[in-house]
Amino acid sequence: MSKIDVVDEAIIDAPPIKVMKAMDDETAGITNWWPNMEFKLRAGSPAAGENKIFDMTIKGPVNFRATQKITKIVEGKSINIDYIDGNFRGIAEWTVEPIDGGKTRLRCRVNVQTKGIASWMPASMLRNGHSKTMQDGFKSLNQFLKNKN
């Protein structure tokens, strides 16, 4: 079993409220802008907000799956998530911070233990893979929000 504790961040060319809405829509499966990621809302789950439960699949040479539950939202500031099932168990915290020019500093900290097939991989490989997936997602988020305007 490996432990992953990693932080990734980027500057997004949109205000925090638009960034949070785009993230909420993506995890509900309404949009599909994040490359190599698939999100599906759990049956019976709220479509948005606290207590929303969704499944995430990270697609690659090895697919990883995790079920996540939103445990706390501070509107325009942060989202706390528990990894409750799948290849990872632990927490994630997404924060948004407004910066000059109507932009947002988007930051994600993930602190999880690996389970199943993810346990067989070195933690350094998982951290690097996580960061690449996050940076690809941040770039796609920027493009998605740019195209919406």
The CATH fourth-level homologous superfamily = START domain
Biggest sheet: strands side by side, in what order? 1-7-6-5-4-3-2
Class by alpha and beta content: alpha+beta
Strand elements, count: 7
Coarse shape: globular
What portion of residues belong to β-strands?
A: 35-45%
Structure overview:
The chain is α+β, with helices and mostly antiparallel strands and 149 residues long. The protein has a single domain, classed as Alpha-D-Glucose-1,6-Bisphosphate, Chain A, domain 4 (2-Layer Sandwich), CATH 3.30.530. Helix content is 26%, strand content 44%. It contains two helices and seven strands; from the N terminus they run βαββββββα. The protein has helices at 16-27, 123-148; strands spanning 3-12, 37-41, 53-58, 64-74, 78-86, 88-99, 103-114. The protein has a seven-stranded antiparallel β-sheet, with helices on one face. Strand 4 and strand 5 form a beta hairpin. The chain is globular and about 45 Å long. The N and C termini lie far apart (44 Å).
List the helices and strands and how they pair.
Blueprint: E1 3-12, H1 16-27, E2 37-41, E3 53-58, E4 64-74, E5 78-86, E6 88-99, E7 103-114, H2 123-148
Antiparallel strand pairs: 1-7, 2-3, 3-4, 4-5, 5-6, 6-7
